[in-house]
Write a structure and sequence with these properties.
Rossmann fold; seven-stranded mixed β-sheet; globular; disordered N terminus; binds S-adenosylmethionine
Length: 353
């Protein structure tokens, strides 16, 4: 393979629950949505400060801006994220004295990327109408190349990079282990490498996601506590003979929740982007009324696919019933007060050389 050719990727795929039913991601993504809205002002300021309309790599002759949302899933979040970027680009045009005519002509080509088994049908059925905006779906793992080189002006991704490309090691039965951390670091490197090829020099990449305050062990976070309860339920239903004990003991989610400093280091290691803004912000659930039912629904929306693949369809409903029962013993409001779950918002700019 020649240097610069798109890298093939071997990535496992764990789609969110599709459709728009009660357990779909589309109807159970209010926590992520809260996070997106928490970060809007910060990312808007960073886009306005760093989007250089005189950069020759922006297609000013045709006035076309190409935007991609990586790991779009299904539901309103991706549409709001894209709308926020479009509105901010228009605002940036208005800030320039000589672009009034250009603003009239401005068109947006918007790409929605996710794994090929994401429910793109529902996504496109619910796509809001927006003049001057043309949409396309791009299937494939964002841990490798999914666009031609130098083809995008602004990239966005939210609540995606804690999803690993694979469960690290064979069935290790632990969460946030050193093997998960190692996989996370490799994955971020591949993500940034691929985006640095696809974005034009001077192009911007907005990254939002989940993290933990430095110094706090995963087990003391809200996510850590709830995941532990969930993994306990797996053992319970294994003991009841509903699933294999071996499978229950060795299951681990293909996820890693990094500390903020780990995210920072991973971003700064890449030399193809400059970090224009990186902040730890409060977690979305601080503003949401997190009840037991909501947590169970969120788990269904996120993990139904992973669990069916590992344990089979028939045991998953029993598992969620058990989880709902166990979770009611857990004082969510107390966890919310003390836990150190956080989010990060980052804006990167592709270096000019
Ligand atoms: C929690 S959802 C976030 C969806 C949306 N961005 C939001 O903010 O609500 C994570 C999404 O990332 C996608 N994803 C995970 N790994 C991926 C990969 N390697 N390539 C493309 N998409 C991926 C999942 O399929 C899922 O749709």
């Amino acid at each position: 393979m020649e240097k610069g050719d798109p890298k093939p990727t071997v990535t496992e795929s764990f789609p969110m629950s599709g459709g728009d039913g009660a357990h779909s991601y589309a109807r159970n993504s209010s926590l992520q949505r809260g996070g997106l809205f928490n970060a809007l002002n910060k990312s808007r300021e960073a886009i306005l400060a760093n989007l250089d309309l005189r950069n020759p790599n922006f297609d000013r002759n045709n006035n076309i801006v190409r935007i991609a949302d990586f790991g779009c899933s299904v539901g309103p979040n991706t549409f709001d994220a894209v709308k926020h970027i479009i509105d901010t680009v228009k605002l940036r045009f208005r800030q320039e004295d000589d672009v009034d005519d250009d603003l009239q002509d401005l068109e947006f080509h918007v790409f929605f990327n996710d794994q090929s088994n994401n429910d793109f049908n529902t996504l496109f059925k619910t796509l809001p109408k927006n003049e001057n905006c043309f949409a396309a779906g791009v299937p494939g793992s964002f841990y490798g190349r999914v666009f031609p080189r130098n083809s995008l002006h602004i990239g966005h991704t939210s609540y995606t990079l804690h999803w690993l490309s694979r469960v690290p090691g064979e069935n290790i039965g632990k969460q946030n282990s050193p093997a998960h951390k190692e996989q996370f670091e490799k994955d971020i490197e591949n993500f940034l490498e691929a985006r640095s090829e696809e974005l034009v020099p001077g192009g911007l990449m907005i990254v939002l996601g989940l993290c933990i305050s430095d110094g706090v062990p995963f087990a003391q976070t809200g996510k850590g506590i709830v995941m532990e309860i969930f993994l306990g339920c797996l053992i319970d239903i294994a003991k009841a003979g509903i699933i294999s004990e071996e499978k229950a003991k060795t299951f681990s989610f293909p996820k890693y929740f990094p500390h903020f400093s780990e995210v920072k280091e991973a971003m700064e290691r890449n030399r193809r982007f400059s970090v224009e803004m990186m902040e730890e912000i409060k977690h979305a659930y601080e503003d949401v009324d997190v009840g037991h039912e909501l947590v169970v629904s969120v788990y269904r929306g996120l993990y139904h696919g992973v669990l069916v693949e590992h344990f089979g369809e028939s045991s998953v409903d029993v598992l969620f019933d058990r989880f709902a029962e166990e979770l009611t013993k857990c004082p969510l409001d107390d966890i919310k007060k003390t836990a150190s779950d956080r989010e990060y918002v980052i804006v990167l700019r592709r270096n000019l050389v």
